[in-house]
Amino acid sequence: MKSRHLYIVVGIAGIFASAVATDAARDAEPVTKAPGIAIGQPVARVAVLDPSMARETEAAIYRGLDWLAANQRADGSWSDTNYPALTALPLWCFARSNHPRKQEITERAVKFILSCTQQDGGIYRKIEGRPGGGLSNYNTATCMIALHSTHREDLIPYVQKARKFIAASQYMGDDMYRGGLGYDASTKRNYTDLMNSLFGYEAMRLTEGVEDVKAKTEKKTDLDWDAARKFLDRLQNNENSDKANAGGFPYRPDEGKAGAVTNAAGKVVFNSYGSMTYAGLLAMVYCNVDRNDPRVRSAFDWSVKHWCLDENPGMGPQGLYFFYHVLTKSLAAYGEDSLPMKDKPAVHWRTELVKKLLALQKTTTEGQVYWFNETGRFMESDKVLCTAYCILALEIASGQ
Q1: Quick one: residue 100, left, alpha or beta (phi over 0 = left, psi -120 to 50 = alpha)?
Q2: DSSP conformation letters of 197-210
Q3: Ramachandran region, residue 14 (left: φ > 0; alpha: ψ -120 to 50; beta: rest)
Q4: Contact 108, 76 (CB under 8 A)
Q5: Residues 284, 106: Cα–Cα separation, whole Å
Q6: Which pTM does this prediction carry?
Q7: For the segment 189-222, what is each residue's pLDDT rounded down to a tens digit?
Q8: Which ranges in the chain belong to alpha helices (H)?
Q9: For residue 159, how many other CB atoms are within 10 A of its CB?
Q10: Residue 157 and residue 165 in contact, taking contact as beta carbons nearer than 8 Å
Q11: pLDDT digit string (tens) for 9-62?
């Protein structure tokens, strides 16, 4: 096969492309593993769970959407209104669904999100005096994906402006952070991290179809994807860093959330951990790094070696629900349903992930369900955030 940068991506957020190719690979041989799906179009549903589990999963999704519907405010928002991403995530859930109240719920959510648009094209609330400001990159990236997922033509101009904001937020200084994104470029904090970079990369990939409706004379907006790939290269641990961490990812080039070790050469190596390794794997997908590239393979191998759903490997319960969320997206994007295990049967990750999320759901007296993390770091004591993470994960894992 001629393709050097071609990915099969099915079931990611309902608006993912089945084949994401670089210009050099546009004349590649057609891939037959999955049907072609245009960016911005719903993904065809694929039976990936046994019928009984599929029905149970659909019921949990529906009941989770019921809980979100019951907790939406009259102005369309959820949770902390300083962070419109916390409204965008539930909007994304409803936009993917066939919930009977989908239209009214999404219309109110869209109205609130549009009230958070700024003159610079970003979608966020300004918070003065806070490091990272209003988390403008995270909020804008999440909101533009959610708006795009509604498939409303009247929202295209907002998404186009948000793309310009994200593109301008990519850090292009001459240091270790080059090519990534941080919380808020306007605060002049010259650092970037993998989590914010993933949000930006994802938003730019999933919404790139809006560039096609621009006038031929209008310049198209995009990231510097080569710089993004090089940022990921610098961040990923490899054999020269430390064998135990090789293939995985820490949070940022100069900070590890999961501690550090000193390798044989006396160099400090920030430990790889679960959620960031899956984030790194998914980021490489968005950056069109070939699935057979050693960097991608090593990230996948690290995730298999450390397979666990009882905790976020390396972080315990911290960030557990984001871990479930990004694991689902990452493995669906990578295109492997069966994980090869050493000295034991392969794992069908979709089935195991769904079982875990179903076991963790909390049920209200009205029969609605929600999720939350008793270890509240990374905002995961927020029921709206964790519930949205889980609904999206269930939708993607079940092929809905």
Answers
A1: alpha
A2: HHHHHHHHHHTGGG
A3: left
A4: yes
A5: 31
A6: 0.88
A7: 668 999 999 999 999 999 999 999 998 899 999 9
A8: 51-70, 85-96, 102-114, 136-149, 156-169, 194-206, 225-235, 274-286, 294-305, 320-334, 349-360, 383-397
A9: 24
A10: no
A11: 333 433 333 333 333 332 333 322 222 223 233 334 455 888 999 999 999 999
Whether 81 and 37 map to the same domain: the answer is no
Q: Which residue has the tokens 């557990």?
A: 320
Task: Classify residue 102 as exposed, middle or buried by CB count within 10 Å of its CB (0-12, 13-18, 19+).
Answer: middle
What's the one-letter identity of residue 159? V
Angular region, 330: left φ>0, alpha ψ -120 to 50, beta rest? alpha
Domain-located, residue 183: yes
Range of the domain at 21: 1-44
> Within this chain, do residues 213 and 89 fall inside the same structural domain, yes or no?
yes
Residue 334 has which token pair?
């990578």
Q: Is residue 355 part of a domain?
A: no
d(CA 289, CA 275): 19
The tally of domains found in the chain comes to 2
Tokens 């590239």 found at = 293
The verdict on residue 182 lying in a domain is: yes
Name the domain boundary from 207, 235, 263.
235
Q: Is residue 365 part of a domain?
A: no
Do residues 149 and 26 share a domain?
Answer: no
Beta-strand ranges (E) seen in 183-262 are 260-262
The SS3 of residue 19 is strand
Burial state string for 189-212 with b = 16 or more CB within 10 A and e = fewer than 16? eebbbbbbbbbbbbbbbbbbbbbe
How many residues can be counted in the chain?
400
